[in-house]
Amino acid sequence: HLFKTSEPLALRLASIHNLKFYFGLMEKLRK
Question: What is the 3-state secondary structure (H, E, C) of 6-30?
Fold first, then answer.
């Protein structure tokens, strides 16, 4: 599994993706 081999990297990518999604959502709500 990807998470078993490179867990720190996977977690970092997941957190970055969540941040992008969150900020994109805030931008949509603002308009």
Answer: CHHHHHHHHHHHHHHHHHHHHHHHH
